[in-house]
Specification:
The protein has 8 helices and 7 strands. The chain is of the alpha+beta class. It folds into 2 domains: 226 residues, no CATH class; 34 residues. A hairpin with a 5-residue loop joins strand 4 and strand 5. The radius of gyration is 24 Å and the shape is globular.
């Protein structure tokens, strides 16, 4: 396949006010800046090429892969790979004007210009950190980019297990999150998520990401293969027949449980919280049944 450019872009979302807590969470939860930015990039590319945006796909296609990283300070940092291809089929040559230099110039303009309305009537813009690299200049960059993107797709905010999954109760946040800043943001998302006006935002489901409700990994349809195709390939592989010579050996019992005592404590805490939640749910059902009966 031939592609005119392969450009790695890093940028971050940052609130433009000094408000803390609620403002921080609502900013992350209500962000629609990415969609506005990628649409502006396409409009600028069409203008540079002298074609209308509806006709852009007939001469060139913009493809992307984006991974969101929730940083320790609680803001979201995007790692994005952009590619400017020719029209379908994928191996068609792009137009002469579709260069890496043009794509970089358009992206820089879009980052500075793009904005999105926030939930309080203001506007959200990108932060000042922007790093653009031309991947087409290095032959071995494809493997490096795949490893780099995979790294941020799998990491948590601080590398701990506590922020790797959804919280089931407020007590979990208080008990498990030691960092005061991250605990404050998670508790803020949980608390305002219980308010009626924010209920549709499902902030409690995303308290572990401090209110960020977007997908951690997104891509344009034709960037490479599809997620459905990857799932199908994994399923077919696991369902396939295994052939090979048997290996004689023996097994002996080593023990059971966790190697790390901290993992044991964490598992016990999750079990305790789950049991308490189940007991509270049963108590609520009994109270509701008694109320109906009375």
């Amino acid at each position: 396949m031939r592609h005119s450019t392969g450009t790695r872009v890093f940028w971050e979302e940052r609130t433009t006010t000094s408000h803390y807590g609620t403002r921080h969470v609502l900013h992350s939860a209500g962000l629609r800046l990415w969609n506005n930015t990628i649409q502006l990039v396409r409009r600028l590319l069409a203008a540079e090429g002298g074609v209308g945006q509806p006709n852009l796909s007939a001469v060139a296609q913009l493809q992307y892969l984006k991974v969101a990283e929730v940083q320790r300070r609680g803001l979201t940092h995007f790692h994005c790979v952009l590619r400017l291809d020719g029209p379908k089929p994928i191996d068609a040559e792009p137009p002469l004007w579709a260069s890496a230099e043009l794509l970089e110039r358009v992206v820089r303009t879009a980052i500075v210009t793009s904005s999105s309305p926030d939930l309080e009537g203001g506007s959200v813009k990108w932060g000042r950190i922007l790093d653009i690299q031309d991947l087409a200049q290095r032959d071995d960059e494809a493997v490096k980019v795949a490893a780099y993107v995979a790294k941020y797709a799998a990491k948590t905010t601080d590398g701990s297990k506590e922020l790797a999954r959804r919280f089931r109760s407020r007590r979990q946040i208080v008990s498990l999150v030691d960092d005061l800043h991250m605990r404050h943001l998670a508790l803020t998302a949980w608390d305002i998520g219980g308010e009626a006006k924010y209920e549709s935002m499902r902030l409690r489901d995303h308290a572990h990401t401090f209110g960020f409700t977007g997908q951690l990994i997104t891509k344009s349809r034709a960037f490479s293969t599809t997620f459905a195709a990857l799932r199908s390939a994994r399923t077919d592989y696991m369902a396939g027949d295994r052939h090979g010579d048997p290996i004689e050996g023996s097994f002996h019992y080593e023990g059971r449980g966790y190697d790390d005592p901290r993992a044991t404590q964490l598992a016990e805490l999750f079990f305790k919280f789950q049991r308490e939640l189940n007991e509270e749910a049963r108590a609520r059902k009994r109270a509701e049944s008694d109320g109906k009966a009375g």
